Amino acid sequence: MPNSSQPVGCIILNSNFWGSAPIGLVVGVAFFILLALAALSSAISLLEVVVAYLIRRLGVSRKLATLGIGFVIFLVGIPSSLSQGAVTINVFGDSFLDFMDKFSGSLLLPLGGLIIAIYGTWSWKSDELLEHTDLKGVAWAPVFLFFAKFIAPLAILVILVFGMLNW
Questions:
Q1: pLDDT of residue 10
Q2: What parts of the chain have a pLDDT lower than 70?
Q3: pLDDT recorded at residue 159
Q4: Among 156, 148, 108, CA closest to 130
Q5: Nearest C-alpha neighbor of 54 from the set 67, 41, 45
Q6: DSSP 3-state assignment of 95?
Q7: At what angle do helices 109-122 and 152-165 cross, to 10 degrees?
Q8: Can you spell out the DSSP letters for 16-60?
Q9: Phi and psi for 38 in degrees, rounded to 5?
Q10: CA angle at residue 68 from 63 to 70, to 5 degrees?
Q11: Terminal alpha carbon distance of the chain
């Protein structure tokens, strides 16, 4: 069983389904086009957060911020791409791409979620939080606040700890 989605999308489906299905070539081409569009739309949405920050904080133009951050992403992507065969780039025993995957999935994502959960629930007033989540006046709003303040950060902390231990 593969431990990431890349083998499923690019190796297993390709060899087991599309090669033997009568319309496998058409389905395969359509799948990879849709996969590329999904990746592009995800990249644009992630890029927008940083671009908006640079526009707001530094006052740079949208075009300059987009090109600058896009160039940085391109530079970081070079070792990720090359470490998959062209050049051996190992970090702590893993290829650069695998290391970045583990680093972001095991540390950055849970840590970001923990910071957001703690900041959002403990620095905002309860009324503001309920208003922004459209739960103001809902009968189960106190239950939501309890879970958001106590259970969610604890669960995310457990995910973070186990992610780091299994790294």
A1: 62
A2: 1-21
A3: 94
A4: 148
A5: 67
A6: strand
A7: 160
A8: IIITTSTTHHHHHHHHHHHHHHHHHHHHHHHHHHHHHHHHHHH--
A9: -65, -40
A10: 95
A11: 18
Which candidate, 108, 77, 80, places its Cα nearest to that of 95? 80
Residue 39's alpha-carbon distances to 11, 42, 53, 60, 164, in angstroms, are 18, 5, 22, 26, 27
Cβ atoms of 129 and 148 within 8 Å: the answer is: yes
* Tens digits of residue pLDDT in 79-120: 888 887 778 888 888 888 888 888 988 999 999 999 999 998
Cα dihedral sign, 25-31-32-33: positive
56 contacts: CB under 8 Å, gap ≥ 6: none
Cα-to-chain-centroid distance, residue 41: 12
Among 59, 72, 93, smallest CA distance to 167 is for: 93
- The type of residue at 161 is V
Q: Please tell me the predicted confidence (pLDDT) of residue 11.
A: 64
